[in-house]
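Narrative progress, year one. The postdoctoral researcher (J.K.) led the effort to move from monomer predictions toward full complexes, under supervision of the PI. The following entry was the first complex the group processed end to end, covering 466 residues in total.
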Amino acid sequence: MNARRSELVERDLAVLWHPCGQQRDYQDFPPLEVVAAKGCRLTLADGRQVLDAIASWWCKSLGHGHPRLRAALIAQAETFEHVILANTTNEPVVRLCERLLALANGFGEDAWGPGAPAGRRDGHFARVFFADNGSTGVEVALKLALQAQAQSGRPRRTRFAALANGYHGETVGALSVGDCGLYKDTFAPLLFPCAMIGGLPYRSGPEDPRWQDVAEEWPAIERALAPLADELAAIVYEPVLQGAGGMRLYAPALLSRLRAWADAHDVLLIADEIAAGMGRCGAMLASHLADDALADIAVLSKGLTGGFLPLAAVLTTQRLHDAFDAEWSAGKAFLHSNTYAGNALAVAVANAALDAYAEEAVLAQVAANGPALRRGLRALAETRPFLRDVRGVGMMAAVDLRQRDGSPLDRSQRTGWRVYREAVARGALLRPLGDTMYLFPPLNTGPGDLRAMIGILADSVDAVLG
Ligand SMILES: Cc1ncc(COP(=O)(O)O)c(C=O)c1O
């Protein structure tokens, strides 16, 4: 990697504060100067191509520059780009609601693809509220749950529980229900308490014989929930895939257990599908990997617009919506507003993304190509004692960097960061989570590019640890 800094990088370092990192790191490892992006490839100013193996923070579900999404964006921009969503409506936003509900309710592509009929098909989810990014979508979900409980005669249900090691975004409410100390601890004085439920049934993926078995772990989880049963407004979780917490997977059957427990105790469930949904885990919602496991509130973002534009959709049941239905004077309205809620450009692109998911058989591509990711990482780990705990589902696979004896690396050595630098030099953006390396490419990445990503991962870990 040529560390000589271009004129643009010099200007960047003078003005730009990059997200989620130590700015000083950019002094000797400058930001990559992107001039174009197509599919899973970024083109840099010096002509090099870099594979986007992390789908640009997990959002580019359909790759960069998807022509259908681009055309939808341009067409909408020529019509109207944004109109306040309070007091107004338009056909694309209503259509998107109908399609998202059908998708989340588990109907097939005929119900949410390009030819989907107009109108709502009855099912579990019945309403869509829009926010403008994942974190604010989570805030909406928390507020909806609290207010719904209060307006359903349960005003003392004001607490939240969440699964340990979870991540739900960076705003204060989302951080409060998250459990990643790296992002959260500094802000502790601002955060509200949340009960973290540990002892999760971690598994390696669908090939794990206990993938759908939580018999061993559930009793302790139930015991941890029991004292909270009368206080909880809701339980928040990333279904199946805990992304920022280290790309860890737990048995989908836990969701069915939580659903039954929540129903028995008048507790609501909030599924944060922001990273795990929209096909990433091999189903349109990760919650679909379990039976009878739909939450009361599901939050979608990231892949919702194929990663083109920020948008979050918060899906709820009719029952929950009914708790807000009253005369104005009753003071029961949900008074949350994000200026760009339901932004017309983002909605147009989201509709086009659903067209693409259906017409390009994206789930079938994940089913065909995704297993190669985890097979590839398993093959690497067989001959490398410093690669441990391979796991994967859908179009995601991860592995931990360890000492040769399997013990954790000294985090101060920043081994993952060193591997990252090696990978960039070899042509892949492989941004690790501490010492966890993972592949999270666009869902439509083909077998050749997946092989290339695995090859670069192998060469890069060998360069650092081999
Ligand atoms: C599971 C999960 N929830 C919430 C968020 C926050 O989304 P955003 O970055 O759009 O605010 C993320 C982002 O990575 C996420 O992975």
